[in-house]
Amino acid sequence: MTWHVLDVGSIWIKEFASALSSFMPTVSWAPAMRAYGFLERWEREEELADPPLRIRRFPLQRGYSRFPFSALTHLGKRQTERMLRHGGAAAQSPLICTTPFYASVAERWKGPVVYYQTDLTIAYQDADARMVRSCDRRLCRVATVVCPNSRRIAEYMVHEAGCDSAKIAIVPNATRAANVLAQAPSGPAVLPVDLEELGRPVVGVLGNLAGNLDWRLLAEAVERTPEYSWAFVGPTGMSVPAGAQNEAREHLLRHGGRVRFTGAKPYRALQEYARAFDVAVLPYVRKEPTFSGSSTRFYEHLAACRPIISTRGFEELLHKEPLLELVDSAAELAGMLATLRRTDFNDGREALRWEASRRGTWQVRAATLARALAARWNGELPIAAMPDAPLGDSPEDTFQAGKGAPFSLIS
Predict the structure, then answer these.
(1) How far is C-alpha 99 from the geometric centre of its chain's CA atoms?
(2) 248: which of 16, 31, 197, 284 lies 20 to 30 Å off by Cα?
(3) Is 393 strand, coil or helix?
(4) Where are the beta strands (DSSP E) in 149-211?
(5) Could you give phi then psi for residue 347, rounded to 5 degrees?
(6) Which CATH class is domain 3-174+362-397?
(7) DSSP H/E element including 279
């Protein structure tokens, strides 16, 4: 039996697939978008070191999901045949689809199908909502289990994509098991070399520094906290829509001094920064599809165990207190920083975050998905070698495996 992951384009799906492959035979598929992909037949194997993952690249027609290319590619037939050439009995080998546009592949697959959805695709700015909803419906119909990574996406799947709620098992984003410390730390780690000139306390913002962050709030918070340094770790290449948010980011990029932008860092290096911050800030602006997803950077900070302050721009994070503090404005953020400073940024929740981080790894997420599939699949799926971990972050995050209890929707 071989598991197939279609596809591993994003870093979080690569992390998930790497974790899955550590205890299940796995083939991870990555499309190469081509101008004439429907005419090409090649495959190429690639070995990634970070994360450890063997992927198979295949040509895919640019615009493959839209007419007329959708008719030219014969994606369902061609990709199914391609995958079946790479191990596993067809009737037992699970297929994990990570976007709605592989519905035609899922409909041809003879084994169990998992729809693992990590984004509210229908909310993308350039999405054809009618087509996405249609693909979501097709995948929910044929999937054995549907694994959105948030309750918001689960609600969409049930209410708009017609998914049977008993199929739902929520599998949030996560961090690497290697990022989880041996024990809760008593304070921040040493600052990385490119931040060591900053004076403490250091407030850290980690991840893609783009349009889903509230730059107006950040700019005001920086002005309200002249005694703090601010470190922004991540790429700034993605544009921010023109207007006040873009102007605020440009202002901070020019600030210098106690405000430092490091640029993009390898995924493996992010924990070095997260552990060194006195406090982490998750300054999301409320907008889709961000609001409905699962915050990868939250799980990175959770493993670092430092205090976390978040805005209310991510629905998932509204349910994470007391692991973090929620604020609505720059004034509240500055006030919370002052409160934390009075305790030398030790809020007494370090052990609580450390314990939660042990359940929030990609290994646990992969095991959660596999166990959810095993609970609903009539065939035999070996699960003995999987990490011994609970399903999800809390009991309400998943259906009760094997008991037929449906997912409880959050109003």
Answers:
(1) 13
(2) 197
(3) coil
(4) 202-206
(5) -90, 5
(6) alpha beta
(7) strand 279-282
How is the chain split into domains, by residue range?
A: 3-174+362-397, 177-359
Give the domain 177-359 fold: Rossmann fold (3.40.50)
**For residue 405, what pLDDT is reported?**
40
34 phi, psi to nearest 5 deg:
-130, 150
Question: Token pair 């997420």 is at which residue?
Answer: 365
**Mutual orientation of helices 129-142 and 151-159 as an angle, nearest 10°?**
90
> What's the pLDDT at 397?
44
- C-alpha 216/C-alpha 220 separation (Å) is 6
- Judging by beta carbons within 10 Å of its beta carbon (0-12, 13-18, 19+), is residue 1 exposed, middle or buried? middle
**Residue 99 carries which DSSP code?**
S
Q: Find the helix packing angle between 215-224 and 330-341, rounded to 10°.
A: 50
Distance in angstroms (rounded) separating the CA atoms of residues 59 and 76: 14
- Whether the domain at 3-174+362-397 and the domain at 177-359 fall into the same CATH topology: yes
CA distances from 75 to 72, 91, 141, 267, 305 (A): 8, 20, 19, 32, 44
CA distance 286 to 390: 30
Give the integer Cα–Cα distance in Å for 348 and 281.
18
All residue ranges of the chain with pLDDT < 50 are 389-411
pLDDT digits (tens, 9 = 90+) for 53-101: 999 998 887 766 665 656 656 677 888 888 888 866 767 899 999 999 9
pLDDT at 250: 96
Query: Coil, strand or helix: which one is 221?
Result: helix
> Hey, what amino acid is at 285?
V
Three-state DSSP class for residue 217: helix
Nearest CA to 396 among 210, 238, 170? 170
